[in-house]
Write a structure and sequence with these properties.
Structural class of chain B: mainly beta
Number of strands of chain A: 13
Largest sheet of chain A: 7 strands, mixed
Shape of chain A: globular
Shape of chain B: globular
Strand content of chain A: over 45%
Structural class of chain A: mainly beta
Distance between the termini of chain B: 39 Å
Order of helices and strands of chain A: EEEEEEEEEEEEE
Helix content of chain B: under 10%
Oligomer: heterodimer
Number of helices of chain B: 0
Strand content of chain B: over 45%
């Protein structure tokens, strides 16, 4: 199984500031034949189900604010919230879907300072 | 907008079978896509249980394969999860979800609200 490791476990950021979450996979999730990284990011607010934010490492899901962006390739990925808003308080998960079983990172909790 | 809704008993006794149903609306399962089950123990992370294609082909997590069965009922437009011989470690919120891109190796683009199942005598 591909192990996904997120850092930090939690993050406290002032309103309007940048939040950066890292995700590292135990092996590459880049598929050279289609030039895609099989990596997604989700947001989960308390008491809710996860919500897809980004797939293929940097493609934003429809309706997701453009302050959310994904970057990285191979084994190292980043989710950036450019200007943290109150409604962004949540746990964020990365997921690889390069190989079965699909696996998730342990989550990063983002809070407002 | 695809909608998914899990339902089933919230309490299951140890060694018995956990059974959940996921009703899908605003999309016909028989039209395509893979559908999956994911669980989340209280306060913990997400674990994939398995996925099923609309044709009925299934794929299971190796760690749960011996105890799980996922099926699809296209006439009712729903999928089901059975997890056998449960223990307290199976207590979790169980989500059903659709896999985007109509491929097995994919992200999950639509999720149900989740069903909390507690295993206890």
């Amino acid at each position: 199984d591909i192990v996904m490791t997120q850092s930090p476990d939690s993050l406290t950021v002032p309103l309007g500031e940048r939040a950066t979450i890292n995700c590292k996979s135990s092996q590459s999730v880049f598929f050279s034949s289609n030039n895609k990284n099989y990596l997604a990011w989700y947001q989960q607010k308390p008491g809710q189900s996860p919500k897809l934010l980004i797939y293929w490492a940097f493609t934003r899901e429809s309706g997701v604010p453009d302050r959310f962006s994904g970057s990285g390739s191979g084994t190292d990925f980043t989710l950036t919230i450019s200007s943290l808003q109150a409604e962004d308080v949540a746990v964020y998960y990365c997921q690889q879907y390069y190989s079965s079983p699909p696996t998730f990172g342990g989550g990063t909790t983002v809070e407002i300072e | 907008q695809v909608q998914l809704q899990e339902s089933g008993p919230g309490l299951v006794k140890p060694s018995e079978t956990l059974s959940l149903t996921c009703a899908v609306s605003d999309y016909s399962i028989s039209s395509g896509y893979y559908w999956g089950w994911i669980r989340q123990p209280p306060g913990k992370g997400l674990e994939w249980i398995g996925s099923i294609y609309h044709s009925g082909t299934t794929y299971y997590s190796p760690s749960l394969k011996s105890r799980v069965a996922i099926s699809v009922d296209t006439s009712q437009n729903q999928l089901s999860l059975n997890l056998y011989s449960v223990t307290a470690a199976d207590s979790a919120v169980y989500f059903c979800a659709r896999l985007g891109g109509d491929i097995l190796t994919s992200y999950f683009d639509y999720w149900g609200q989740g069903a909390l199942v507690t295993v206890s005598s």
